[in-house]
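Course exercise 7: structure representation. Students receive a sequence record and must write out the corresponding structure in token form. The form below is the worked example handed out in class, using Metalloprotease PmbA (444 residues). Read each field label carefully; the graders check that inputs and outputs are placed in the correct fields and that the protein name is recorded exactly as given.

STUDENT ID: A-19
EXERCISE PROTEIN: Metalloprotease PmbA
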Amino acid sequence: MLDEMKRVESAVDNALAYAKSLGATSAEVSISKTQGLQVSSRLGEVETVEFNHDGALGIALWNGQRKGSASTSDLSKAAIEQTVKAAFDIAKYTSEDPCSGLADASLMVQDKVDLDLYHPSNLTPEQAIDITKRCEQAAFDTDSKIKNSDGASFSSHHGFRVYGNSHGVLQSYPSSRHSLSCAVIGESGSDMQRDYAYTVSRLMAQLDSPEKVGQDAALETVSRLDGKQLSTGKMPVMFRSDIASGLFGHFIAAISGGNLYRKSSYLLDALNTQVFPEWLTILEDPFIKQGLASSYFDNEGVITQTRNIVEQGVLQTWLMSSYAARKMGLQSTGHAGGIHNWRLQKANQSPANFDAMLQALGTGLLVTELMGQGVNVVTGDYSRGAAGFWVENGKIQYPVQEITIAGNLKDMLQNIVAIGDDIDPRGSIYSGSILLEELQVAGA
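STUDENT ANSWER:
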């Protein structure tokens, strides 16, 4: 794989040279290749065994301020040159856009950084099948109320990314990703519920065991059986850590350049203002070793950097690609393609595990699942279907379902009471459970 990455670097360099020979003012080329194995089984029987070896090249080039783009999955020399020529021809007919073009040369990545992202696995299909079967069987063995299954799925892939542009950038790095998931169905009388569990890591050795994933899936499913509805009213609400990062996802959308220059964000004038409680700082760290969202340059070759996105509750920066930055008269922040590992730092807050967070909640709603897309990033209005548990005096009493929670994101984020230390590391936002002071809950 690493030898192939070197060959692809040469192909990217040749594509850029060919674009220049055609008369392109500037160009960028990106190639991603992955290979690996995916296996799924259900009720003890193998459903799929898939081997993947995929690759794709994308090129964007400019004639002045006219842009042309093209892509191909054929990485032969002739196909790449044909793709470059297609992009060049397209650029003849597109409209001029003064904000289009490569990111500024002064922002380009220069040096390689080893983030320890590459840990391929040599598992055989037989070993992968055994993992999925053990995982699913563990779910059935955990509780007799587990009556059916949507199956278990295991994936192990590795590959590389190569990026180059006419500023002289040519960068590449390999990475790997492994995951295991299980979804099962439980029954109690006439009630049926489905839930799941999963684990993901750059390293096979850091995945939870198949037995633990299966047990967790069973426990999550059984805990939801015989759910009740709640009466409508306002109450404290706690988002469990595995869904809490979604709140920050809406915040990310609101401070991203695309929504800002289109005037479609509820945080249009929020820069350098209080958007979270003053005890909260959000640190972005793209350089976490083995991090799932680690990268030392973004999709445009702009170097990433460690920075405070929010400091003592005050918003410090927008999230900008080069195009959005030019639209707003600003500078790219290295966020073309997304964020890079957010850590939540809490000043003057005592450590709080999940049980301590329940005690802080007292009496209210613990949300463990969200449904629907009822979030308006323009106004901040928030309304989503939910399920979870009713909590009294810091103790879970019974599951609840068929409810809706509603509020406004601006108020919700500023009225966060506490964030737990029960951090979910399976994504780009390292968040524990989040306790909100009050939300409107609509039930029966």
